[in-house]
Structure formats: C-alpha cells, structure tokens
Design a protein that fits this description.
- The chain has 318 residues and is an alpha+beta fold.
- Among the domains are: 62 residues, Helix Hairpins, CATH 1.10.287.110; 64 residues, Sandwich (HSP40/DNAj peptide-binding domain); 75 residues, Urease metallochaperone UreE, N-terminal domain (HSP40/DNAj peptide-binding domain, Sandwich).
- It has eight helices and eleven strands.
- The strands form four sheets. The chain has a four-stranded mixed β-sheet with strand order 6-7-11-10.
- Strand 6 and strand 7 form a beta hairpin.
- The radius of gyration is 34 Å and the shape is elongated.
Amino acid sequence: MSDPYATLGVARTASEKDIKSAYRKLAKELHPDRNRDNPAAAERFSKVTQAYDLLSDAGKRAQFDRGEIDAEGNPANPFAGMGGGFGGRSGAGYGGQGGFRPEDLQGYGAEGIDLGDLFDGLFGGGGGGRRGPGAGGFAGQRRPPPRGADVAYRLRVPFTDAATRKDQRITLADGKTIDLKLPAGLEDGTQMRLKGKGEAGPGGAGDAIVTLVLDRHPHFRREGDDVRLDLPITLDEAVSGGKVRCPTVDGAVMLTIRPGTGSGTVMRLAGKGFSRKSGGRGDQLVTLEIQLPADVAELARRLEGWQDGGNPRARLGV
C-alpha cells in the first residue's frame, strides 16, 4: 500500500500549506493534458490526487497517522485488539494455550466438516449458508467496492469573468453541461472538484477535477487582487481637467480628471478588482498617460514663444 506522504514527496510533519504546494506542483507536471501519450503519468496523477484528498482532510490525516485507516481511507485492521482466541498462539482459546488450530479437530470426527460454515456460525454468519472469502466473519472486513476513476478537465476563463466571478459553463465527457460558480480568490491553476461527475464504478462514480486557466486581457493586467490599467488622456484633458470614460471589469465608468494632472498619475477605483478569499474585492488602479496628437504642428504653433520654466527632472538630481 502506497504512503500518501511519499506519493506527494512531503514529510509526515508537513504543514497544510506544504501539502497543497506539493500537490499543485505534481498536478501541473502530471496533468493528462500535458501527458497525452504517457499513460503512466495519468495513473500517477490519479494517485497524487487520491493522496492529496486524504492528507488535505484533517480528520482522515489524523486517522492515517494513528494507523486507523490505510492510504485509501479503509480501516487498517478491523480485528486489532481481539487477542489470540482464534488463529493466534498467545491466547487461551479453544485449542488450549496455543489457541484454536484446525488440526485440533483431528480425532473428533472432523472429516467432512465445512470449516467455512463453522466459522460463519462462530462469528454470527447464521443460517448455515456458505459464505465467500472476505465476506465478514473470520476472513476479515470486506473492502468497499472501488469508485470509478476521476476525470480531469481544463476550463479557460475570460479575464473579466474571473474578476467578477461570472458563472462558467462546462461540457462533461457524457455530453452534459454544468454551470460552475467560480470560487472567491481564484487564481490561474485553481482546481474545482465536482463530486460524482467522473467515470462510473462499482462503488459509485469518481469525481471531475476542473483546472481553471485564466486568459490574459489586452488592456487589463492582474496584480494580486487588484487590476491595473493604463488610460490615455489628451493634453487638453490633462491641462483643463474634465470627465473621461474609463473601462473596468464591470463596465465603463466616468473618471474625473483634475486640472493640471500629470502623466503617470495613479487613480484608484475601489472594489473593481478580483474577489478575495477573505471577502470583498480588490481595486482597479488607473495610470494616466498623456497622449500628444499625431500632428503636433498646430500645438507647436500655439506654444510658439512659450517655455515651461520648471525642471521636471529635479528630483532625479539632474
């Protein structure tokens, strides 16, 4: 049985953050979309995901560390602590000091006795019916039937949709469509697990694991939870001030420019950024860039004979 710590390559003392970081690194490396011709990578991706599912659950991780469950989440030893009454040589069972042994039946008309039926009766099988190996009783607890395999998907999310958490529609392998509600604080590579949307199996369907890929935007760029935008303004808007239209991830708004605004001025639009895990949203930071007209002949004529007596480079020591 594989060790989930070894599967993720972390120590048993690893923090929740270390475990998550190790899983993201391996999931990115082994993702089926990047290893279409490597079945071994897909198999390992499934094992890495299973290991992360166990270790990311604080309760299951504690049970595994105590030896109560195995790497698949099943009871590790359902008969631990029952002593040596049967099958062991240390307890005072039916066969004396050595415990119960099949050879102890010799000489007592044991020929023809079905030991399976005998054990069924001793362990509450009842009814005298013959039971298969592993069906409870002396043979131990039956493992639950395996679930179907998980299925991996990649979903590209437009920049503005990611910022505003607009629902995204995804089509699954069975042809069905689902509208996903994007989580707060999502980043490029964030994964969402859809329970029971994977392949069918004897123990139920596996899950669908959706990796979100955030698209770039031609104008906006992300900086943490904030959105940045360079906004061109004309020379007369910078000198005289006024209101200009400014795009945001939520749609255009009117931005007030103060008279005498210089190029490089940064204005903040509160709550126009990405959602935060802790609640609320970041801001949009708008950097103003004064843009001269393509034909400066008229501007030069108007400025003829005028010079700015200031030194904009004084703070640079020149």
